[in-house]
Amino acid sequence: MDKYLQANRALWDEWTGINYRSDFYKVEAFKAGQNRLRDYEMEEIGPVEGKTLLHLQCHFGLDTLSWARLGAQVTGADFSSEAIERARALAAELSLPATFVCADLYDLPRQLPGRFDIVYTSRGVLGWLPDIDRWAQVVTHYLKPGGIFYITEIHPFEQVFDDDDGVTELRLRYPYFTTEEPLVFTPQGSYADRSATVKAEHEYAWNHGLGEIVSALATTGLRVEFLHEFTFCEWPVSFLLPGGDGRYRLPAELDGKLPLFFSLRARKPPAAV
Ligand SMILES: C[S@@+](CC[C@H](N)C(=O)[O-])C[C@H]1O[C@@H](n2cnc3c(N)ncnc32)[C@H](O)[C@@H]1O
After folding, report:
1. In terms of DSSP H, where are the helices of the chain?
2. Does the predicted model carry a pTM greater than 0.90?
């Protein structure tokens, strides 16, 4: 694992405990039965009962276990050992059947055998990955013929704007396309709790253009079934305003005019008969 992934993994190990205790994740509500999945993603994926589902970059498993509650046979994978330990403990505590694997995404095919009906990943995943083509190869590797890949993620267009605390206007700052060298940030607590103390000094991130993401998936042989662009974001950003529905949008004059989030479904062609 290279130095950037190692540093990010150490950061995620630190963030996991903070996030687990945060109001952002509401673990107690989840334990009491709350489903963390969004209505639109459940509709866009369709019924999962009895299907095998691999969740890439699953963090400590709340979304993975939400799919398990809907009847999917779930496997979650993440490179943070802290996250995987907590995911396993939650599954055991809630008596939900689930398998969790600790591995770097790019190394997963060497550690996890099998093929799945659904490969799923969501909300805050692609920015940690330096190579979007190799990511797409891992996705496709794990799909059965006829299986679907689904992602819901922040839109790369949203990521080009300065989001430092206090910046409320749209100010271009970051590249839209993948860069060889990462963008370097100084963590301020965790995104789930800004006031928390973290030892890690840097986080390393990459933006990936929508064309790069779609082309990476198509190049592996997947057929893109839809790409939806949404005008809301699922988490707070300095230049977005909170709505009453827990989502964040641009101010009135721009609301509805620019993409902030997207979802995509792609299918591996069925095996030839
Ligand atoms: C924001 S979380 C996404 C999960 C989900 N949206 C959530 O909020 O619980 C991002 C996850 O990606 C994982 N991650 C980052 N880089 C990774 C890599 N190279 N291989 C595997 N997991 C990685 C982190 O450990 C973290 O758990």
Report:
1. 3-21, 27-31, 39-45, 62-69, 81-93, 108-111, 132-141, 210-219
2. yes
